[in-house]
From TrEMBL:
<dbReference type="InterPro" id="IPR013815">
    <property type="entry name" value="ATP_grasp_subdomain_1"/>
</dbReference>
<dbReference type="GO" id="GO:0004638">
    <property type="term" value="F:phosphoribosylaminoimidazole carboxylase activity"/>
</dbReference>
<protein>
    <recommendedName>
        <fullName>N5-carboxyaminoimidazole ribonucleotide synthase</fullName>
        <ecNumber>6.3.4.18</ecNumber>
    </recommendedName>
</protein>
<keyword id="KW-0547">Nucleotide-binding</keyword>
<keyword id="KW-0210">Decarboxylase</keyword>
<dbReference type="InterPro" id="IPR054350">
    <property type="entry name" value="PurT/PurK_preATP-grasp"/>
</dbReference>
<comment type="pathway">
    <text>Purine metabolism; IMP biosynthesis via de novo pathway; 5-amino-1-(5-phospho-D-ribosyl)imidazole-4-carboxylate from 5-amino-1-(5-phospho-D-ribosyl)imidazole (N5-CAIR route): step 1/2.</text>
</comment>
<dbReference type="InterPro" id="IPR011761">
    <property type="entry name" value="ATP-grasp"/>
</dbReference>
<dbReference type="Pfam" id="PF02222">
    <property type="entry name" value="ATP-grasp"/>
</dbReference>
<keyword id="KW-0067">ATP-binding</keyword>
<keyword id="KW-0658">Purine biosynthesis</keyword>
<dbReference type="InterPro" id="IPR011054">
    <property type="entry name" value="Rudment_hybrid_motif"/>
</dbReference>
<keyword id="KW-0436">Ligase</keyword>
<dbReference type="GO" id="GO:0006189">
    <property type="term" value="P:'de novo' IMP biosynthetic process"/>
</dbReference>
<feature type="binding site">
    <location>
        <position position="145"/>
    </location>
    <ligand>
        <name>ATP</name>
    </ligand>
</feature>
<dbReference type="Pfam" id="PF22660">
    <property type="entry name" value="RS_preATP-grasp-like"/>
</dbReference>
<feature type="binding site">
    <location>
        <begin position="187"/>
        <end position="190"/>
    </location>
    <ligand>
        <name>ATP</name>
    </ligand>
</feature>
């Protein structure tokens, strides 16, 4: 049996469980708390430590044949010493390195010739950078992003004018946070028609396989729902597939990556962000595809042939069940109501605490058609059950 060490014990690691059992793989996780979701489905000799604790990862390596990642909040420099000692990381650390800092990621994509929004880094003298370089060349509104550790809308702000930008940066400059004034990225605001995403996997031999392109719908920079497949032209789908292959081959990556895109009203595709791991936009694949993104990831990192990514139904819609209050409820009544929706599959992550915006679970509904309108109606019906006073 192959043992896969997973750095991170959240829901993404937890969702690898069924695939691991199917493939005869055992999971061992490095995670801070015994209460984290993946602890219940992994081996008994997990490593309880911070995600970026390289000494703990050295212990994980002793218990694993290969190590992979649930999230990207790791210390690449410290892990490199383990790689030099022969620890097998998949994706390899060199594939992660250009992607962890959003500014470096933008530069890497641009240098590959891939389409991205215009962008600039915030330097220490950010007043000069913002006013002279950015505002004069790109203008407002603009998007301000933390270069590290931003996810699910955290560290991302829509800025309307130069004064708002100054105020936001001044707030962060006085906080005792890892994020400092020179740790931000400013980029062009894209008035997109839709947001899209694709899950792509690369095998050790270089084979790349993509899942169907999905449409993601965000609220406050957090994904609320995903519709599969996205209603886009074949030209757009081909372009996205080409971008995914170019990126993964350039990185010499092994494993699953999630890639987000903007689709502009004139049909242009721009890369928004890249996640070097399984991704929220691919959760629909658990119930709607021959092979889930989690099985595909384990197949790739374990050196097994990639699976078939074809959908088993005409369409599907995935809705995130996000926290909207501070509580310790398991929301069992609401979950039972949602389960009554035909062809609904509820996935509850077993988290013990709810807080606004926290991902507590998701539900995927399989559809008999590829109707985007039908998918949206079903998504809203789920949200009317889940969120108090949700308007349909």
């Amino acid at each position: 049996m192959k043992r896969v060490g997973v750095i991170g014990g959240g829901q993404l690691a937890w969702m690898m469980a069924d695939a691991a059992k199917k493939l005869g793989v055992e999971l061992v996780v490095q995670t801070p708390s015994p209460n984290d979701p993946a602890v219940s489905i992994s081996a008994k000799d997990n490593v309880f430590a911070a995600i970026d604790d390289a000494n703990a990862t050295a212990e994980l390596a002793k218990k694993s044949d290969v190590i992979t990642f649930e999230n990207e909040f790791v210390d690449i420099e410290a892990l490199s010493k383990l790689a030099e000692q022969g620890v097998c990381f998949r994706p390899r650390l060199e594939a992660l390195a250009p992607l962890l800092d959003k500014y470096h990621q933008r530069c890497y994509l641009r240098d590959l010739g891939l389409p991205v929004p215009r962008f600039v880094a915030i330097e220490q003298d950010w007043n000069t950078t913002a006013e002279v370089i950015f505002a004069s060349e790109i203008g407002f509104p603009t998007v301000l992003k933390a270069r590290r550790h931003g996810y699910d809308g955290q560290g991302t702000f829509i800025i309307k004018d130069i004064e708002s930008l100054k105020q936001k940066l001044e707030v962060y400059s006085t906080k005792e946070l890892e994020t400092q004034p020179n740790s931000f990225l400013l980029e062009e605001f894209i008035p997109f028609e839709r947001e899209l995403a694709v899950i792509a996997a690369r095998y050790v031999s270089g084979e790349v396989c993509t899942f169907p392109v999905v449409e993601t719908q965000q609220e406050e920079q957090v994904c609320r729902r995903a519709i599969a497949p996205a209603c886009v032209s074949s030209q757009v789908a081909v372009e996205i597939d080409k971008i995914a292959r170019t990126l993964l081959n350039s990185l010499d990556a092994v494993g699953v990556f999630g890639i987000e895109f903007f689709l502009t009203p004139d049909g242009k595709v721009l890369v928004n962000e890249v996640a070097p791991r399984t991704h929220n936009s691919g959760h629909f694949s658990i119930d709607a595809c021959e092979t889930s993104q989690f099985e595909q990831h384990l197949r790739a990192v374990c050196g097994m042939q990639l699976g078939n990514t074809t959908m088993i139904c005409p369409g599907a819609v995935m809705v995130n069940l996000l926290g909207y209050e501070i509580s310790e409820s398991d929301y069992i009544t609401k979950r039972q109501q949602i389960e009554q929706i035909p062809q609904a599959h509820v996935h509850w992550y077993g988290k013990t605490e709810s807080r606004p915006g926290r991902k507590l679970g998701h539900v995927t509904v399989l559809l008999d058609t590829q109707s985007r309108d039908q998918a949206i109606v079903i998504a809203r019906s789920i949200e009317s059950i889940w969120y108090p006073h949700q308007a349909c």
